[in-house]
Design goal:
The structure is a homodimer of 384-residue chains.
Chain A (H helix, E strand, L loop, with lengths): L1 H6 L1 H17 L4 H7 L3 H15 L8 E6 L5 E8 L2 E6 L4 H12 L3 E5 L5 H17 L7 E3 L6 H8 L7 E5 L2 H10 L12 E5 L5 H13 L8 E7 H17 L3 E4 L1 H6 L4 E2 L2 H4 L7 E7 L2 H11 L4 E5 L3 H10 L4 E6 L17 E2 L7 E2 L6 E12 L3
Parallel strand pairs in A: 3-4, 3-6, 4-5, 7-8, 7-12, 8-11, 9-10, 9-11, 12-13
Antiparallel strand pairs in A: 1-2, 2-16, 14-15
Helix pairs in contact in A: 2-6, 4-5, 5-6, 9-10
Pfam families (chains A, B): Aldedh
Catalytic activity (chains A, B): L-glutamate 5-semialdehyde + phosphate + NADP(+) = L-glutamyl 5-phosphate + NADPH + H(+)
Function (chains A, B): Catalyzes the NADPH-dependent reduction of L-glutamate 5-phosphate into L-glutamate 5-semialdehyde and phosphate. The product spontaneously undergoes cyclization to form 1-pyrroline-5-carboxylate.
């Protein structure tokens, strides 16, 4: 598949040019055009990502557990593919290859539905991937792309096509994911929002707090693991908040504070209730002063979206309580929320970060695109 | 909870009498009345089952895996509760206690919806369970029972109550489960059908084949793990089929065969296409002669429901191919399909056997009623 992407370079880049000119005439923003654009270097990156997935261990057939029961039966829980995975995504053309490769690595078939702006690129990439499959002696139909921009096609996928699609993975903005979660009649693995919090505890190391908050907010502001709300213990706020705020402001971050935070830094924008509910995906940080750990836990339980939550403290019992009590896919102690990523977790690649409660949470890699069966080996046992 | 069930005996048995008299006036069959009926002995059994669940290990907080990544982060995948589990079931009053106990054991809250025939018994049992929770210093609302037979309540549960219910577990007949799977807007863990097959291979041990098939079909015919279709390799059919058939007939089993099977045992009822699709849950067995393993695999792939599938052979490579290639929650080698049960698997208790492809397959015990989160412990890491 990776080789076929590279040998199809002219074909894929031509298709991408058609998408780009269509997108320009629709008046897409420069940022959107940049996401859509492919060139030789980016396409090599797409192929290399497929090679990285190919290098992952095959999860299918691996034993998760094995035990013997008193009847003498030898029972193993063994990983199997999920089946047919429907993936609905927006404009980045690389998703076509990434998602298809990850599904194939875990033994699944993929039905891909690209955004209309990137449909020509996606079709060209899918054609290359399918020829790569055939060249490897595998069925091309393990990867299928919906070849129409017709929105009805999404409805059909979300209905499960009479049991033929086992799970839907939406990849894109909140609007897309919310629609998929609303309309799907089959299970959805996806993330709706990453409204991530950091709680700076009374026992936080000041230097760690400054560095981690800056990185969590500003390394990349548009990713789902970016920090959106900072909670600072009131006992250290007057000392720590100015030190945390200065490099954020230097980096161009707008700070919005509650009344107590603004008592310390009066030139902050006042934060409203709406701020606690907002995933900015932008250089904006809302800041609230909290009474203690319980107050922080309560704020996170109220406004968190189950994505990634962070505690900064040198007090291990505070840290452990936060890690156990906070209900989110990823809970962190003294490390940036920007580590919320399958690659950083050692999974090699991810199809997204799940914020639901069923099947998988956090980064969804090849292993999480499997289910299991029980393999039971007997020697003639009948049940009394 | 178990103690409270026993101290509430009079109250619960009185409520059950009201259900029984209502059921009699509705003209329920004796079998249905027997399923609904509680007496002191049965109630002790219900309490003992709750004690058995209480004795299980607590899955919440246990580490499924733990590793360190190059950035130095220590990452653990830790079990957490699923959240709020909605359970929709039919007439057996013991399900109220079994399901509530299993949900509580795995840290979940349960919203229970009993069948209208058993509503008074279920209400009395739920009241006892809730008082038991309070006595143990736990919130009574961890177990809630819908106190109306109004069918709209089911619709509300299936909608997820605005995100307040995380998963639905239907327990009951095919009609109930199909309705739940059709209408639910949230994930469903359940089993629709157990159309279980046994494939008797050319290398089957005759004695094992005779004993296992008899047990798989006739030990209890009404359970989801009961055998429904027998596939016999044509090279051994003329020898083996009569030996397998005799004890089945002695036990009162009706045999329905395809043409090739009837060429060996002409007095069988002819099997039609409909038989291959039927979960009898009765002393009836459909029998087909197959050419070879591939033919058996094809039949199972066509008609199987993903519940439990069995191969009987002394040839290990045949067995391993069957175990790997058959796509079902449970695949067995040389042991009765009636072992398809959480208790027999060493899980202590089960809320059912899942035939879906998401989250869990096979027996669903306390561990399968959990999900996980990633607990990440750092020392100040920021992401480059």
């Amino acid at each position: 598949m990776a080789d076929a992407l590279e040998t199809s370079q002219t074909y894929i880049l031509d298709a991408n040019k058609r998408d780009m000119s269509g997108a320009r005439s629709k008046g897409l923003t420069d940022a959107m055009l940049d996401r859509l654009m492919l060139d030789a270097k980016r396409l090599r990156g797409v192929a290399d990502a497929v090679r990285a997935v190919a290098a992952l261990d095959d999860p299918v057939g691996s034993e998760i557990a094995r035990w013997t029961v008193p009847s003498g039966l030898d029972i193993a829980r063994v990983r199997t593919p999920l089946g047919v995975i429907g993936i609905i995504y927006e404009s980045r053309p690389n998703v076509t290859a990434d998602a298809a490769a990850l599904c194939l690595r875990s033994g699944n078939a993929a039905i891909l539905r690209a955004g209309s702006e990137s449909l020509q690129s996606a079709l060209a990439i899918a054609t290359a991937l399918r020829s790569g499959l055939e060249g490897a002696g595998l069925p091309a139909d393990a990867i299928q792309l919906v070849d129409t921009p017709d929105r009805e096609a999404v409805g059909h996928m979300l209905s499960g096509l009479d049991g033929k699609v086992d799970v839907i993975v939406p990849r894109g903005g909140k609007g897309l994911v919310a629609r998929v979660q609303q309309d799907a009649r089959i299970p959805v693995i996806g993330h709706l929002e990453g409204l991530c919090h950091a709680y700076v505890d009374a026992d936080a190391d000041p230097e760690k707090a400054v560095n981690i908050v800056l990185n969590a907010k500003m390394r990349r502001t548009g990713i789902c693991g970016a920090l959106e709300t900072l909670l600072v213990n009131e006992s250290v706020a007057s000392n720590l908040l100015p030190a945390i705020a200065a490099p954020l402001r230097d980096a161009g971050c707008e700070l919005r504070g509650d009344e107590a935070a603004r008592a310390i830094l009066p030139d902050m924008v006042p934060a409203t209730e709406e701020d606690w509910r907002t995933e900015y995906l932008a250089p904006i940080l809302s800041i609230r002063i909290v009474d203690d750990l319980d107050d922080a836990l309560h704020h996170i339980a109220t406004f968190g979206t189950g994505h990634t939550e962070l505690v900064i403290t040198e007090n291990n019992s505070t840290a452990e309580r936060f890690l156990m009590d906070v209900d989110a896919g990823i809970v962190l102690h003294n490390a940036s929320t920007q580590f919320a990523d399958g690659g950083e977790f050692g999974m090699g690649a991810e199809i997204g970060i799940a914020t639901g409660r069923i099947h998988a949470r956090g980064p969804v890699g090849a292993e999480q695109l499997t289910i299991f069966k029980y393999v039971v080996r007997g020697t003639g046992q009948t049940r009394p």
